[in-house]
Structures are given as C-alpha cells and as structure tokens.
Design brief:
heterodimer; A: about 425 residues; mainly beta; four-stranded antiparallel β-sheet; about 10% helix; globular; B: about 210 residues; Porin; eight-stranded antiparallel barrel; 10 strands; Outer membrane protein beta-barrel domain-containing protein (chain B); LVIVD (chain A); signal (chain A)
Chain lengths: ~425, ~210
Amino acid sequence: MKSLYSSALLILSILAFSSCQDEITSTYTYHTMMPVYYEMSDIRARVISTEPAQPLDNPGKIYIYEDYLFINEPTKGIHILDNTDPANPINLSFIPIAGNVDMAVNGNILYADSYVDLLAFDISKIANIQLIKRVEDVFAHMYYHETGQIITFKDTVLTSENPAWQGGGVWMMDASMSFSANYSAAAQSYGTGGSMARFTLSNEHLYAVDESTLRVFDVENPENPTFVKPIDLGWGIETIFPFQNKLFIGSNFGMHIYDASTPSSPKRMAVYEHVQACDPVVVNEDHAFVTLRVGTVCNGVNELHVIDIKNPYSPTLKKAYPMLHPHGLGLAGDFLYIAEGVHGLKSFNVSDVMDIDQNQLEFLTNQGSVDLIPGPKSLIVIGPDGVCQYDYSDPAKLKKLSCIQVNNPVNFY
Amino acid sequence: MYKSLTLFFVALLLINLEGLAQEKIYFGQTEIGLLVGRGVAQWDGNHENRTDLTLMSFHGARISRNHVVGFSVGLDQYDGVPILPFAFGYRGFLGKEGKPKLFGGVDLGYGSAILEEKVKNEWSESWYRGGLLFSPSVGVSFPARKGNTALTFSIAYRRQDFSYFQGNLAGTGAQTIVSDQLPPGFISLNETEHLYRSMVFRVGIMY
C-alpha cells in the first residue's frame, strides 16, 4: 500500500515538473472557392450518355418539355423527370453535362451549354438521348487561357492549423470575400428558369445571354445550330424574355428592348433605365412587369414596376408598387405570380394595371420562393422546399400538388 | 451566476462544518484552493504564470474502511473562464483512526463550460465547449478531536481542456455547402482548444 502511494507521488511530481504547461491549438475551418482548371479537350472527350436518375441536389433552371421536366444541376448536368401527373413527378434519368447551366428545347432538340461549347441533343427517345452536335468555343469568355484551359470554382471546406496570431489574415480567404462566390451566387439567379432564364428561343433563333453579351444562334435547322454573332449589351445582364419579335432583357441597370424581327441581328430599340436593382422581366401586349429588389449583387428598392411598352421605342413607367422582396415572376393571361423570397408567393389580377395592389388574390406566406414558371399543367415554384407544383386553375386558391425534395435547396439572395 | 455559485459552495462548506454526516457509509470532502499553471510560450519564449481559484466538493460512499468511490462537482477558473467540473472519483486512505492520515485520489470527468453564454449576432456566433478533466491528488488529513470531521491539505495535478469557437455565419445569398466539418449555416469556424495543466493546492474538510 505504501509503495502505491509513493509511486502515485512520484507520478505526480513527474507531471508537475515535466509538463505543467498549457497548450493552445487553433483550428480554422472555412468555406472557400477552390479554382479548378480543366482542359476543354478533356471535357470534350467525355462520352455523354443517359444515366440512372440522381437525387436533386441544388437545382438551377427548369424547362418544361411535353410531359417532362428538365431540371439543371448547375455545372453537372440535367435531370429528366416524368411530370405526366404533377402531383407525383417521377425522376427518370440524368444526363451528365460538365459545365452546364442552361438549356432550351426546340422541337425534339435540346440545346445545352457545356462551358465554352453549345451542345445539341436528340431527345425524341427520352430513354436514349443522343448528342448530335457540338458547336465549339462559342462562350469563349470562359476561357482562362488561349491554350484551351478553362477555370471554374469549386466549393470546398478547408481546415488549417495556425498559431493564434496568424489567424488574422485568414479571413481574406473566407468564401463571402471571394469574387467567385459572389459570381456564383449571381450566376445562380440566371439558372432558375421562368422569368430568370438566360437561354431563350424565338423565331428559329437561340439567344443566350451572359453578364455582358447576347449570343445569337441560327436554329432554323434544329439539329444543326450555328453561331451567328455576339452582341454586346453592357454589364449586369440577368434575364431574357422573348415576346412577339422582341427581346426584353433585364439587367442590373434597366430593361433593354431589342427588335428581333430580323432574328439574326437584333437591334436595340430602347433601354428603360431605373435605379440599380436585380430585375426579372415578364411582358404582355401592352405592359412589361419588372421586379426590382435589394440583393447581394444589386442594391436598390423592392418594387414591382409596370411599364407601358405600347411604343417600344419609348417605354414609360406607368406605376410602381411596393413589394417585400420580389424575385422571379410569371404571367399567365391576366394573372401575375410573384416569388416574394422568404415572404412567400403572391398572385394578382393585373387586368387593371393601375390597381394591381387592390387585386391581390392570394399570398401564401408559408411558401418561400425565388422563381416560378406558369406551366401548362401546374405552376412550378422554386424555393427552399425544393421544386413545388401548384394547381393554379383558380389563381385565388393555389393548391399545392407536390414538392420534389432537394438536398441543397436554393438560398435566398 | 459565478458569484452565486461561489456563495453556494461557501454555504456548502459552512453546512458541512456542522458535521451533519453521522452515517458511516457517506463520505464527503469539500476543498478550496488555487490552480497554478504556466501559460503558453509567448513570442519571446517567456511564460506567464496563471493562478486561479478552484472549489471542489466530493461526495462518495465507503466501499471498505479505506476506500471511497463517488463523484465530485466544483467550480474552476481558467484565465477568467469558469468551468463546472463533474467527475467520478476515488479516495483511498492510509493511517490509523484518530491520527493524521495520508490520502490519495483520482477524479476523471468532464469540465463543462455551461457558465459561458453563447454570443450571437447577425454575422457571427461564439461559444465555449468543455472538455476532459483528469486529476490525481494526494494529501494529509488531520482529524478533529471529536466527531468524524478532519482538516485536509492536498496537492493535485489537474488536466482540463476546453474549446472556444468563433464562427462566421453565411449571410443571406452566400453559397453554403453541406459538410461534416462546418455546422450548417456557417462559412467559417475558428476553434481554439485550450489545454490547461495545473498544480492545485487546496485546503478543506472531510466529513
């Protein structure tokens, strides 16, 4: 027993004199964007064929084609869903397309971008989608280097150990500080479909807008898209909406109206300028409806603007209505639907544009939404619950039909 | 919170001085003392010494005449951060009844940082998380002339760690990704783990 205590004393004194000193260990874990370099030649060498269905992770643009929904997974590819019954959409398959953020369908041909290239797919057999054409180097602004290398950014979580006093500089690498994170947050707004689309088809031409350029493709022969020309638009381009030989392009600074009666060579008719804001556009015969909101990449006001476009050379503001935080919007006949961000989803009767605020039909405060598409069967709403569909046969009584679960739902921006 | 806890322990000490425990099975020990340690090496290689207050109260049951098992609670201070320790413990005695005795013990448990409140604002959150406590001790007890109480002097080694977290929240609009390494909603997290190795010098009573 005595030896036990003396050994305990011995251990204690060893502890006391050897390691009686404090230690501090710092671990810094942060979300950042890692640059990833690809050779376009490698990407082009990949075989693209239909793969089994994959769960939706962080969906981008949605396109309605017959009974199908095409849902983009930004930079990864396109999900194909059978939407014969909007109350029960079925995830069918996935087409892996590296660098894809947008798409459009012309007849039986699907157009999709793949970094710098435009691809055309034959989708007449939905179970066996075939790549039939690749137009190379059309979105050349993505090139990092003339040798054919492109740069993209990948979300990454890194952990590093730093002595405490070096920690100060590390915040510079924080995700929110990086240009690319802001760029990708902005890019997300392009891709969600509906009024926030970037690809659009009109008069046998495909129009694609990026931040500053409108690119025109001739798709008169759908299987053989040919690049016509780029048209410079100025910075901050967000959305494109075609209507009756005109293109309405929403930017951070205003709404551009282009005459596309000569489809290969759209000409600017007017620019409706306003305060800087993020602003999707929808249009009918006489009026354009634009939402302006305060956002991460744009400052400004939260409003719905109704613009008289009877004379497209001289658009004039007819009335502005205050909104909460409007994102995408959709027009179906006399009814306007507005995604109000975290605040919900609204529907209005806009037959009298001077009295829209008096004609609010529905305000679903529990349906957060960033964009919507009034489809032939249902109103598709993209929000934090995933991709939801509503029966909107009565705009004053929206009935939820289904929600497709999403792993990583859209964030409000 | 901290003040009221101190009062609580002082009250506990005073109540125990009454010698209320007549039961043979029950064993209690309450001590107050100083935690002494050496801080981390500074830029010039020097160390700052650290001295903080510690309170400890052990409650156990005699499993034989010289062996007690039980648990201890207390309150320790490390550089101004209060830690509430909860530990399982053992005490063993050597010596004759009615004479000064040598005793030794060990405590193993968790030091909780519950007294440090979480600080949260629009952009960031910071909080403390407790950690492992290990503390072997030896001491001498001097029994009172009558009753079961004894005055004790002890020294101990005390290993305690805890972590300070400071995280920045993802603002609305920022991209977030699902990761095991970051809690949801955070874009960065800075963990500073403090490991304290202290010598403890205590005085108290057994009852």
